[in-house]
Protein backbone atom coordinates (compact mmCIF):
# COMPACT_ATOMS: atom_id res chain seq x y z
CA UNK A 1 0.00 0.00 0.00
CA UNK A 2 1.36 3.40 -0.90
CA UNK A 3 1.23 6.31 1.56
CA UNK A 4 -1.46 7.99 -0.53
CA UNK A 5 -3.62 4.87 -0.48
CA UNK A 6 -3.17 4.59 3.30
CA UNK A 7 -4.19 8.22 3.71
CA UNK A 8 -7.34 7.67 1.68
CA UNK A 9 -8.22 4.41 3.42
CA UNK A 10 -7.41 5.45 7.02
CA UNK A 11 -7.76 9.25 7.29
CA UNK A 12 -8.73 9.21 10.98
CA UNK A 13 -5.78 7.04 11.95
CA UNK A 14 -3.39 9.31 10.06
CA UNK A 15 -4.95 12.39 11.65
CA UNK A 16 -4.65 11.01 15.18
CA UNK A 17 -1.08 9.94 14.49
CA UNK A 18 -0.17 13.45 13.36
CA UNK A 19 -1.97 14.99 16.33
CA UNK A 20 -0.16 12.77 18.84
CA UNK A 21 3.16 13.44 17.15
CA UNK A 22 2.73 17.14 17.86
CA UNK A 23 3.71 16.34 21.46
CA UNK A 24 7.21 15.61 20.16
CA UNK A 25 7.23 18.97 18.39
CA UNK A 26 6.25 20.62 21.68
CA UNK A 27 9.02 18.76 23.49
CA UNK A 28 11.65 20.06 21.07
CA UNK A 29 10.28 23.59 21.34
CA UNK A 30 10.28 23.46 25.15
CA UNK A 31 13.91 22.37 25.36
CA UNK A 32 15.04 25.21 23.11
CA UNK A 33 12.84 27.68 24.99
CA UNK A 34 14.25 26.73 28.39
CA UNK A 35 17.80 27.22 27.20
CA UNK A 36 16.96 30.60 25.69
CA UNK A 37 15.95 31.95 29.11
CA UNK A 38 19.64 32.22 30.04
CA UNK A 39 19.95 35.25 27.76
CA UNK A 40 17.17 37.28 29.39
CA UNK A 41 18.42 39.97 31.81
CA UNK A 42 15.55 39.35 34.24
CA UNK A 43 16.40 35.65 34.42
CA UNK A 44 20.08 36.39 34.98
CA UNK A 45 19.28 38.96 37.65
CA UNK A 46 16.92 36.73 39.61
CA UNK A 47 18.18 33.19 39.16
CA UNK A 48 21.59 33.27 37.52
CA UNK A 49 24.35 31.22 38.94
CA UNK A 50 26.52 30.63 35.91
CA UNK A 51 28.14 27.55 37.39
CA UNK A 52 24.68 25.93 37.64
CA UNK A 53 23.38 26.81 34.17
CA UNK A 54 24.67 23.58 32.62
CA UNK A 55 23.09 21.70 35.50
CA UNK A 56 19.70 23.14 34.64
CA UNK A 57 19.90 21.95 31.05
CA UNK A 58 21.30 18.58 32.02
CA UNK A 59 18.60 18.16 34.66
CA UNK A 60 15.95 18.18 31.94
CA UNK A 61 17.89 15.50 30.06
CA UNK A 62 18.16 13.36 33.18
CA UNK A 63 14.42 13.74 33.67
CA UNK A 64 13.89 12.56 30.10
CA UNK A 65 15.81 9.37 30.84
CA UNK A 66 13.57 8.70 33.84
CA UNK A 67 10.51 9.52 31.74
CA UNK A 68 11.60 7.05 29.08
CA UNK A 69 11.91 4.33 31.70
CA UNK A 70 8.64 5.13 33.43
CA UNK A 71 6.66 5.47 30.20
CA UNK A 72 7.39 1.93 29.08
CA UNK A 73 6.18 0.47 32.33
CA UNK A 74 3.18 2.78 32.64
CA UNK A 75 2.00 2.28 29.07
CA UNK A 76 2.16 -1.48 29.46
CA UNK A 77 0.30 -1.43 32.76
CA UNK A 78 -2.26 1.35 32.17
CA UNK A 79 -2.36 1.70 28.39
CA UNK A 80 -1.03 4.29 25.97
CA UNK A 81 -4.03 6.58 26.16
CA UNK A 82 -4.04 6.96 29.96
CA UNK A 83 -0.27 7.33 30.03
CA UNK A 84 -0.35 10.07 27.39
CA UNK A 85 -3.20 11.95 29.04
CA UNK A 86 -1.51 11.80 32.45
CA UNK A 87 1.74 13.13 30.95
CA UNK A 88 -0.12 15.99 29.27
CA UNK A 89 -1.86 16.92 32.52
CA UNK A 90 1.41 16.63 34.43
CA UNK A 91 3.30 18.90 32.03
CA UNK A 92 0.72 21.63 32.67
CA UNK A 93 1.52 21.52 36.38
CA UNK A 94 5.26 21.35 35.81
CA UNK A 95 5.22 24.43 33.58
CA UNK A 96 3.26 26.19 36.32
CA UNK A 97 6.10 25.39 38.75
CA UNK A 98 8.66 26.81 36.31
CA UNK A 99 6.68 29.97 35.79
CA UNK A 100 6.38 30.78 39.49
CA UNK A 101 9.74 29.47 40.72
CA UNK A 102 11.21 31.42 43.63
CA UNK A 103 14.76 30.06 43.38
CA UNK A 104 17.11 28.04 41.22
CA UNK A 105 16.64 24.83 43.20
CA UNK A 106 12.90 24.80 42.50
CA UNK A 107 13.62 25.56 38.86
CA UNK A 108 15.97 22.58 38.71
CA UNK A 109 13.27 20.33 40.15
CA UNK A 110 10.76 21.67 37.61
CA UNK A 111 13.20 21.01 34.75
CA UNK A 112 13.67 17.42 35.91
CA UNK A 113 9.91 16.88 36.22
CA UNK A 114 9.29 18.38 32.79
CA UNK A 115 11.98 16.09 31.44
CA UNK A 116 10.06 13.11 32.80
CA UNK A 117 6.98 14.15 30.86
CA UNK A 118 9.02 14.82 27.70
CA UNK A 119 10.57 11.38 27.92
CA UNK A 120 7.08 9.98 28.23
CA UNK A 121 6.07 11.80 25.05
CA UNK A 122 9.05 10.35 23.19
CA UNK A 123 7.99 6.79 23.99
CA UNK A 124 4.22 6.95 23.96
CA UNK A 125 3.60 9.04 20.84
CA UNK A 126 5.64 6.89 18.48
CA UNK A 127 4.46 3.53 19.80
CA UNK A 128 0.83 4.61 20.16
CA UNK A 129 0.75 6.08 16.65
TrEMBL record:
Record protein name field: Uncharacterized protein
